[in-house]
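Structure, all two chains, one model.
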Amino acid sequence: MWDYTDKVKDHFLHPRNVGEVEEPDGIGEVGSLACGDALRLTFKLDENKRIKDIRFKTFGCASAIASSSALTEIAKGKTLDEAEKISNQDLAEFLGGLPEEKMHCSVMGKEALEAAIANYRGEPSMKEEFEIVCKCFGITDKEIERVARENKLTTIAQVTDYTKAGGGCQSCHPKIGAILQRVSGKPAAEPAEQRLPPGKKLSNLQKIRLIEETLEREILPPIRSDGGDLELIDIDGNRVYVALRGTCSFCPHSGFTLKHFVEAKLREFVTPEIEVEEVKP
Amino acid sequence: MRTVYLDNNATTRTAPEVVEAMLPFFSDLYGNPSSMHLFGGQVQRHITAARERVAALIGAHPDEIVFTSCGTESDNAAIMGTLYSYPEKKHLVISRVEHPAVLNVAHQLQARGYRVTELGISRQGHLDLDELQAVLTSETALVSIMTANNETGVLFPVEQISAFCRERGVPFHTDAVQAVGKIPMNMRNSTIDLLSLSGHKLHAPKGVGALYIRKGTRFSPFVVGGHQEAGRRGGTENVPYIVGLGKAAEFVTNHMAEENGRVLALRDRLEKELLDRIPNTMINGDPAQRLPNTCSLSFEYIEGESILMLLSDEGICASSGSACTSGSLQPSHVLRAMGVPFTAAHGSIRFSLSVYNTEEDIDHVIRVLPPVIERLRNISPFWKDYLDGKPLSPFMVGGDAEHHVHG
């Protein structure tokens, strides 16, 4: 059972400002029913351009509902410039803290507010170029980067707690790792080949063993936990031939998984020259 | 506040008579049954009696019962003990909806080079038996299929499956943790080779289980140690808990008719009244092929953890297969394998009853749940959209940049 604070319980059991403002000045929708949580936020401004009325409707767990309720309480009476500065930490603090695994609820609240403000200003909710990193939950590189920076995140598990990214098939973990490195400014981890004594190269036999080990330890468990599977067909120099099985064999993202997960892992743990190719049945 | 405990597939109340039967073995009768003195040796006959009671519960011979520490150990021992006995065979067949005690063992074996076939299930929760027959080969070391699913209560035709396996010479194990004690099981008229059961699902305490190993079944010990359990499971016998399991076996044997009569009627009434009173509610799993005590319902457009929290506030204990309660970010593997629609997958609630439940318990849930569902639907952005007949928007299904993508 989650260790919710009394404040979280209070805002879940007695949520403030539930509903939809009639003829709203701004409306923001984030999340989706398919993903397990979603929030629709509507607000109306008074003559001084302060938030006069703000209401939410949320589909989700207790902390998602409590975070939405907290958001409306904090934002009410603020100008949009002031409201824009509300961070997900502000929401979490207002509630006396949230379990780490539930921090994404506070992030969803902040995003709904941003989306509603953008809607009022007639701006597109997505201002910049982005790439979808987590296909399972539709999380972009921009969001991961921003949430990681604002919350000083250092691990992939934290990114999952705060944004849900990486919580499904896990094939985006290498990309999240790369974003974290960019954000923290720390130099990228040493490439695997440099862990060998200098001047030494992997023998063919060592390479084959290392590829097999990496497959079993790093690559297959997350793929299998999603109902997929992968079979090593052959190794020719640095070319690794694999066949996709199980749910992977008809998954539209399998090409993505192959390049950005399987190949990335093999490059990390074996040698950066690895190229992965799929063998079709 | 009144506690209405409807989470008996998670764990059951230890029956007071079970507790009472166990107590002497914590104090006066603390000897080791293997000892060569009378003080220890006198304990042995209590273990023998417990073994007879557990054997009687499933229609087995007492020699076919091995006591373990829990259902998970029984499952692990059944799988590993069989694989150790057939080192040349590298293929395992399970279903996609097995308990993690089987599923994750299989995944680990897969990482070690075993081939694992996971059989899918239908929307109603049924296996395709033709598929099962098609995947068996001379390489298959073991088929392991649960008797009853813990989340939906759906029963698999394990007798039929074990008969196929017998024909093909493949050992068959069933994780019967949810079934034993709730429905009659009789190994005498069966071809099941191995069966796992757990104490705390049938009114014994947590920390004890048993594995049935049919006479003539090849098996190598999984927990290796002393000669206990006829060399099939090392470790000094957990005497008080084994005695407790024996007493609990007697308890559920005596209550079997009640479980399949009065408890079944309570479950059916609960289900019918909730379906009548709450719109957009569906049963997960085939209603005609289920444990008598289990009811898995999905309430569309709301999320399970919120429902559980509000129920808990009214003293009602149930569980959910929603993402937020499963500790992951996706709904349970059982609901996903069944293809429960996305409008309902996150809003599942499982009620699981026991002989301790009463008509008043059911009345309480029937009174409390409909307003809880209504309250959460009034908070949900999707319910009014649904009532207004709005088409499925990207906001609901996800997948487009405007709504689904967090940017």
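The CA atoms of residues 15 and 69 of chain A lie 5 Å apart.
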